[in-house]
User: What shape does this take?
Amino acid sequence: MKIFRHLFRFYINSSVHVGLSCLALFCSTQQQLFFSSPFSLSLFVFFGTIFAYNFIKYESLIRRRKNGIRKELKVIGWFSAVVFLGLLYYYFQLRFQTQLGGFFIVALTLLYALPFFPNRSNARNWKGIKIYIVSLCWTLATVFLPALEADFSLDVMLFVYGLQRFLLVFVLILIFEIVDLKNDDPLLQTVPQQIGVDRTKILGFGLLVLFLVLDFWNGNFSLLSLSFILVTALFLAFANEYRFKYYTLFWVEAIPVFWWLALRLLL
Assistant: This one.
């Protein structure tokens, strides 16, 4: 059992789970909008998510503690290096316009993780901006990159779908921010820190309702999408700062995976 615990911990801490979550949203886009992208783009999104999250979480730790890095962090570091090589390989398999889109996402990620301006922290620590940058990056990677690679028309329907994806990821991050409320630096000014947990939940429920309204407008509404939103709403309703960390790190991150599997099986 100990080996399974170690493997599960590595699976979560090395961001493989969040990579699968992003990949699931990417595949859901193709499933719902009826177009296909090459396998190389799927792997680019998967590897890119893993590397981006590991870079954001561990870059400063590795840089500051070169001689005192624990074994697990070293393994994640080497794993991330291999993932980065895969990321580069598949990046150069993409069409030029998709490469430009991918480069823009990378620039946003670096802005989020690294301090580019003198006497300023990185964007991750700018008051209240974190949730918008992360939601935008996920939307670009899972909606607009596959559309660019498939030469899909950038019409109103696609932008409405992209807005839905932004709202969904925004609500999922709200759940994280509620659960992390006790540990987050007050200077971050996350949504729950600014308006409180109850109002954050009301905001999240309102955004989920807007998601469903846009689903009607876009012609994608189904009992399956309603079930998906209801499950997300339940996780939001039961979120609090005393939840076990895997409430978000595993279960909330798994919501897009279950959504994509349901789309594959039932549609």
